Amino acid sequence: MNCFELDQAQQRFLELVERAKRGEDVIITERNQPVVKFVAVEQGMKASNASLTAPAVSTKRRRRPGSAKGLVHISDDFDEPLEDFREYM
């Protein structure tokens, strides 16, 4: 991991962008605290498709409805009062 203080990063901005494009981790610090991490955008994404006002690119997978079917079990007494709280009911 490559860490650079903010004043160094300003002077070497283009070099740091190139490093990130090659897949290196580039961290910018301010007073020895990490504040920014440069991450390369996926190769398949074209600049013409991106807008400057668009929200950040998400690398999360799309959700599939029903993908957890059969993995979650809720017991029949799920909504019954807990024994510890019976005296308050």
Essential attributes:
3-stranded mixed beta sheet, alpha+beta, 3 strands, elongated, 89 residues, YefM-like fold
Describe this structure in words.
The chain has a domain at 1-40: YefM-like domain (YefM-like fold, 3-Layer(aba) Sandwich), CATH 3.40.1620.10. Strand 2 (26-30) and strand 3 (33-38) form a beta hairpin. Strands 1-2-3 form a 3-stranded mixed β-sheet. It is elongated. It is built from 2 helices and 3 strands; from the N terminus they run βααββ. It is α+β, with helices and mostly antiparallel strands. The protein has helices spanning 6-11, 13-21, and strands at 2-5, 26-30, 33-38. The model has no long low-confidence stretch (mean pLDDT 81).
How would you concisely characterize the structure shown here?
This protein has a domain at 1-40: YefM-like domain (YefM-like fold, 3-Layer(aba) Sandwich), CATH 3.40.1620.10. The protein is built from 2 helices and 3 strands. The chain has helices at 6-11, 13-21, and strands at residues 2-5, 26-30, 33-38.
Outline the secondary-structure elements.
Elements: E1 2-5, H1 6-11, H2 13-21, E2 26-30, E3 33-38
Parallel strand pairs: 1-2
Antiparallel strand pairs: 2-3
Largest sheet: 3 strands, mixed
Number of helices: 2
Q: Helical content, roughly? A: 10-25%
Cα-atom radius of gyration = 24 Å
By secondary-structure content and strand pairing, the structural class works out as alpha+beta
> What is the count of β-strands?
3
- CATH architecture title of the domain at 1-40: 3-Layer(aba) Sandwich
Low-confidence stretches: none
By CATH, the superfamily of the domain at 1-40 comes out as YefM-like domain
Give me the CATH fold name of the domain at 1-40: YefM-like fold
Q: H/E element string?
A: EHHEE
Mean pLDDT: 81
| CATH class bucket of the domain at 1-40 | Alpha Beta
List the strand order in the largest sheet: 1-2-3
Strand fraction equals 15-25%
